[in-house]
């Protein structure tokens, strides 16, 4: 199992290197070292944490994410250009229910790319989120995102309490 | 209208639309009241602007390698924007940089 995952990662990192460096054969001398180092970091920094990106769940996630990113861009553009500067900023606290590991990191980063919210600080399970308009982006929208990320990584959210 | 001209117009439309969002993000950076609101302008508007410009460039690209390169650049920019936004906001909060607005919770000053 672990060997299969590592082979997948090695392939992905090699593809990444090809994209960055181009089809230059000499570049692979550095590329092999870079892929090896990437694999080492992957295992050292949490290769055994729960949750793996499920390739089968990606097609459902991407269109939703792109739509939200477009809405986020329009939202900020509208607010910055409007003469009255319509902002009602504030902070809210959100208790994360995804387990530690890649799904949690992905969730916290996604919050910052979606309309009107970004994750400002994380202490334990308590996430502090800054919102541009308090009324429009409540905890319920974060919970929707958290559910989608959970399905993307095939992990269950922990129960309340 | 010839096909080549229509294609160039389409590419141009994506790139101009992308530039518009960069301008909007910069206007937000100048007009928004505090560091936290300004981070919204940077992460949201610029990511969409870069995405639209990337689409324009992918359409024009000379081959698959260039297309992948543009796509990967956008993905890396997304990851970097989210990470940098979080780090800037966190250090601002912990240093007690004041936030504007009717907040349900104001940041406590740093130690």
Write up what this structure looks like:
The complex is a heterodimer of chains A (161) and B (111). Chain A is mostly helical and 161 residues long. Chain A has 2 domains: 2-44, no CATH class; 55-153, no CATH class. Chain A contains 5 helices and 3 strands; from the N terminus they run H-H-H-E-H-E-E-H. Chain A has helices at residues 2-21, 28-44, 58-81, 102-113, 139-153, and strands at 90-95, 117-123, 126-131. Chain A has a 3-stranded antiparallel sheet, with helices on one face. In chain A, a hairpin with a 2-residue loop joins strand 2 and strand 3. In chain A, helix 1 packs across helix 2 and helix 4 packs across helix 5 (139-153). The longest helix of chain A has 24 residues, at 58-81. The two termini of chain A are 34 Å apart. The model of chain A has no long low-confidence stretch (mean pLDDT 85). Chain B has 111 residues and is mainly α. Chain B has one domain (3-94). Chain B is 77% helix and 0% strand. Chain B has helices spanning 3-31, 35-60, 64-94. Chain B starts with a helix and ends in a 17-residue tail after the last helix. At the A-B interface, helix 1, helix 3, strand 1, helix 4 and strand 2 of A face helix 1, helix 2 and helix 3 of B.
Strand content of chain B: under 5%
The whole-angstrom Rg of chain A is: 19 Å
Q: Please state the CA-atom Rg of chain B, rounded to the nearest Å.
A: 18 Å
- Indicate the low-confidence ranges of chain A by residue numbers: none
Oligomeric assembly: heterodimer
Low-confidence stretches of chain B: 106-111
* Count of separate DSSP helical elements of chain B: 3
Number of strands of chain A: 3
Number of domains of chain A: 2
Total domains of chain B: 1
What's the mean pLDDT score of chain B?
87
How large a portion of the residues of chain A is in β-strands, by DSSP E? Answer: 5-15%
Number of strands of chain B: 0
N-to-C SSE string of chain B, H for helix and E for strand: HHH
Query: Could you describe the largest sheet of chain A, including whether it forms a barrel?
Result: 3 strands, antiparallel
